[in-house]
Write a structure and sequence with these properties.
Layout: H1 7-27, E1 35-40, E2 45-49, E3 52-62, E4 65-75, E5 77-79, E6 82-95, E7 102-112, E8 118-127, E9 131-132, E10 136-141
Antiparallel strand pairs: 1-2, 1-10, 2-3, 3-4, 4-6, 5-6, 6-7, 7-8, 8-9, 8-10
Length: 142
């Protein structure tokens, strides 16, 4: 038995609308708003400016002291899951116990949520004084 002819177009329209809504929801990625995102650990701070991070600054444990470093001009790349970023660089590391600054290897990666309201990732810092921090997970919010 066949369904009445007037119901078939309505059913086709509902299936088409459901497919469109699903693809829109799955594909919607908002760019993070320009401004400051703060989080943890180590007073993680991200300054977003357009499609890049103009500055990323954070602290890390180094024995009894804390080290602090920053990176600038980190490009954001749009992905299906949100705007992502990754950088391997060398930068200045200052210490809370007034010991001399050092040059350290800094690896930072992360991704903003699809809504662009939060970000999470991993950093690793390696300096002559402290050795490596290992992978440290971080989060930051607007």
């Amino acid at each position: 038995m066949h369904p009445p002819a007037r119901l078939v177009p309505a059913a086709v329209a509902l299936v088409a609308l459901a497919g469109t809504a699903t693809s829109l929801a799955a594909g919607t990625v908002k760019a993070p708003k320009s401004g400051t995102y703060t989080g943890y650990p180590g007073a993680m701070t991200l300054y977003v400016s357009g499609k890049s991070l103009s500055l990323v600054a954070f602290s890390f444990k180094c024995g009894e002291a804390k080290g602090r470093t920053s990176l600038n001009d980190v490009k954001l790349k749009k992905t299906k899951k949100g705007y992502a970023f990754s950088i391997k660089a060398h930068g200045n590391v200052t210490y809370s116990d007034e010991q001399p600054d050092e040059n350290g290897a800094v690896n930072l990666s992360g991704r903003f949520s699809k809504t662009g309201k939060s970000s999470a990732g991993v950093f690793r810092v390696k300096t002559p004084r402290c050795g490596s921090t290992g992978d440290v997970k971080w989060r930051a919010f607007r």
